[in-house]
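Input sequence (327 aa), recorded before submission:
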Amino acid sequence: MLTLHDSFQRQFTYLRLSVTDVCNFKCVYCLPNGYTKSKQEQEPLALNEIKNLVHGFSRLGFTKVRITGGEPTIRKDILDIISTVASIPGIAQVALSTNGYKFDEMAESLQKAGISRINVSMDSLNEERFEKITGKSNLKKIITGIHLALSLQYTAVKINAVLLKDGNSQDVDAFIAFTKNLPITVRFIELMQTGSNLSLFRRSHVSADFIKTKLIAAGWQILPREISAGPAIEFSHSDYQGRIGIIAPYSKDFCSTCNRLRITSQGGLKLCLFGDQNYDLRSMLQREEQLPELINRIQSLITYKTSSHSLHDGKYGNTSHFAIIGG
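Predicted structure, token format:
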């Protein structure tokens, strides 16, 4: 079997696939004014294009695919997309990132289609703060969906909360308590700069170090990182069923274990979330016979991957907001 390594001997086995730029939330750090379609925006990849794309990556040793957006469940053919991806030889794990707005309605059908792991964006456990951050008032519905995922025995249920100074940092204790009797992972993500959130970033960015200090002082232990895992540092405690994770992109050596590549909803390969280029693959996704060409193209492009992002220098690449690539 082929494998894909970059110039720094990092192996890539994890594909984050955006299936739409559209999102129905108005999160202050991403789309504070809501989603608007640009005149130049192409239609998202069709089902056949997605099938050919994932076939190519599976041939290169990719075993995990995460379906992202925007909000992926907005697509009417999302179940077909998931079942198609899950049926491709070599793909052992299909996960979904969602804002959870209708997950309680779709949890069973998503699982039957092939989703085994779910990440739900939920930036506060307080209804007022949640609505202020997201522009939505359906926190209870989202929490209902999380409990349903647990009852259906999803392999992993994770909550992602973007840390905002004076916005939700006061929710940390409540989130930790939320893991007491539930086998979930709550992950605190440091706010990252994009092309549209500089003012908010300067005002609201806060390091997650205070959470790490709090956890260690309370007896939480850092867990060994799984080979196929993302960049989160995870903690466990014998008195808690759940876990706490920290994603700190401004920390030292954050990129040293990178194992993922990203595809935009229009078929652009992003070697880094904060890279300057979207390398077009769409033209090679039209027919199965193009598979060797697609594989060669990916192998060639991986040589351009840098050792690290340049967030510390204020460089965020061409990422204007996270809805276009799913974070």
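Checked by second reader. The two ends are 29 Å apart (CA to CA).
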